[in-house]
């Protein structure tokens, strides 16, 4: 009976680690996609050091989970106590790190409000100054998502430090409609856009556009994160039980 339980635990351990292996492969693939994606998302990430660092952290976490899943599978099938102990310690560290990150994200979620982004835009935005990381990032976002400001073009009307000629409105050229949504895309009518003709402008705010674009993915990512944490917890329990059961 004890041998049957140990055998069952061994295969369950293998199954859980196989899912960790797949999760690591998905994170690894996602991290690679964010870094090499040619559609414009890479430009936004590269312009922001924090996002750029986050992409590499995702890549590293994916590689680590990929490796640990592989080691856990080998340790379970071969009943190797050293591999099982190594797996348990590292999966515990990853579990605690992910749990801490989730708690911090929940605590600081209020910093991602519409009002926060509007305040930051009005305070730091410098129009077409591509040497400024903040402005370059915002321009990339507005071009890629065909949007303007946080709430709309009106966000730029009371930014006093913006410089523009008397013939132009406060709207930056990043808010002008393009035939292709990239920096290389041709303007539909740049002069008319800057003069304030609305049909040549992107009028919708970026906050709504991005929220609508990523809403499904946010819930999917949250569900995936909860699933990964649950799998890791069960994997640790089975690893320790299997470690204690091996003679």
The share of residues in extended strands comes to: under 5%
**What low-confidence regions span 5 or more consecutive residues with pLDDT below 50?**
none
Helix content: 55-70%
Tally of separate helices: 8
Instruction: Please state the overall shape, judged from the principal axes of the Cα atoms.
Output: elongated
Roughly how many Å apart are the termini?
A: 15 Å
Main sheet properties: none
Q: Can you give the mean pLDDT?
A: 76
What structural class is derived from the secondary structure elements? mainly alpha
- Reading the helices and strands in chain order gives HHHHHHHH
Gyration radius, rounded: 24 Å
Q: Tally the structural domains.
A: 2
Number of strands: 0
Structure description:
The chain is mainly alpha-helical and 247 residues long. The protein folds into two domains: 1-111 and 225-245, no CATH class; 114-204, no CATH class. 68% of the residues lie in helices and 0% in strands. It has eight helices and no strands. Helix 2 crosses helix 3 (49-78). The mean pLDDT is 76. Keywords: Glycoprotein, Membrane, Transmembrane, Transmembrane helix. This is Tetraspanin. It holds the Pfam family Tetraspanin. The chain crosses the membrane at residues 12-36, 56-77, 84-108, 217-243.
